[in-house]
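Thread: adenosine-5'-triphosphate complex, take 2
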Amino acid sequence: MVKLSGINVAYGDRSILRNADLLIRPGDRIGLVGPNGAGKTTLLKVIAEEEKPDDGVLLVDSGTVIGYFSQNVGELSGRSALEEVLAGAGSVYEIGQQLSKLEHQMADPVAEPLSDADMDLYGELQTEVLAREGYDLEYRSEAVLTGLGIGPERYHEPVEHFSRWLENAYRPGQDPCIES
Ligand SMILES: Nc1ncnc2c1ncn2[C@@H]1O[C@H](COP(=O)(O)OP(=O)(O)OP(=O)(O)O)[C@@H](O)[C@H]1O
Ligand SMILES: [Mg+2]
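Output below.
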């Protein structure tokens, strides 16, 4: 669950979010709709902790993974569409990468065996991934892409390829469809 209460964000003396409340429950699918400049991205940045509110409280249940796919294609960098969504999940994804590196080392007959410290680390990382339901991250990321109209044949295309697709998806007066 993610809960925002009494959130205020102002840029200079312009108030963007005023006393905003929001509750996101497990399984919720939410569309955020509003005119350009209304503060949609600002709200998402508060949830992703990229923007610190001037006032108010953000509560995020432990084990919740916040992913954020920017509407600014210029920020996207050389990764495939799938990698970009996975990376959006932040540290859970990085922990998964670390785990699979250790697993490869364990499975490799010519590699150094894992040290005791590495074995301890492996156990800790595994617990962390389990607690945060990180094991089906790839499956869930694929579902996000499919939901955006990007099918399996395009999962591994560089994310930049989609900028033209995004521009085409954009109609004046509407938000680009990818974020909101
Ligand atoms: N870092 C910033 N500094 C100053 N003003 C900002 C900053 N970020 C956003 N703003 C302003 O805050 C307002 C809300 O911006 P925001 O990006 O949240 O709107 P939005 O609803 O996502 O708009 P769009 O539909 O164009 O994506 C806009 O007027 C924007 O110019
Ligand atoms: Mg926006």
